[in-house]
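CHAIN AND CONFORMATION:
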Amino acid sequence: MSSYFTKNIGAMVLLPVATVLILAGCMPNNASSDANNIEQSIRVSGTGTTYAIPDVLSFTLVITREGDTVAPLKVTVDEVTTNVLVTLSQANIDKDDIRSYAVQAQPLYDYSDDRSKPRIRGYAVTRSIEVTMRDPSAYDQVLDQSLAAGVSAIQSANYRVSDPSKYYAEALQLAIDDARGKAEILAASGDVTLGKIIRISEHSSAPQPAFRMESMRAASADVSMPGQSDIQAQIEVVFQIN
């Protein structure tokens, strides 16, 4: 990270850090006070990092059945869907956190023959149910119960932080502290006094961290662990020097 400081002086002085030096005589008489402030300033970058444990888990339950005709397959998928929704309700998952999509059907082809066109050997009927858990600790239990109810697969399981903004605010404060510490070191090395902040520029934004889990059936023990997410803020600060 690069930093510089400038101070009006009468003669050129070689400094031990990367600097941009502006002589007082180089400024026009009509220069603004803001420009003068920037002259006598130290510009530094700051980085702050906080850590959050993801508290929300989203995943997709997939129900698929294959057979010769679509109609009875749809009936079976609907029955399994009903059982799965009951299972999710018993796990205290809110209805607003469950999205059940319409059934999709597609033909299954047999490519084993040498004929130019494959023949249809049957059909696959599928429904996907997206679920958001506000208490990820019960995920393994819900996974087992969903599979027992007839779910074919669990896909796209992702952990995330429900409110990363509060962690980002903490990271911003740490970034300011980091920038001030650097500026104090530079001011001391240049035998100047650090003044107020003239300008702050934010070079980052609040993230939406997510962690993908493998689609797998959990063992009886609770083995799904969200880990933690690092949330980082980056800023640039200009301090006045005296």
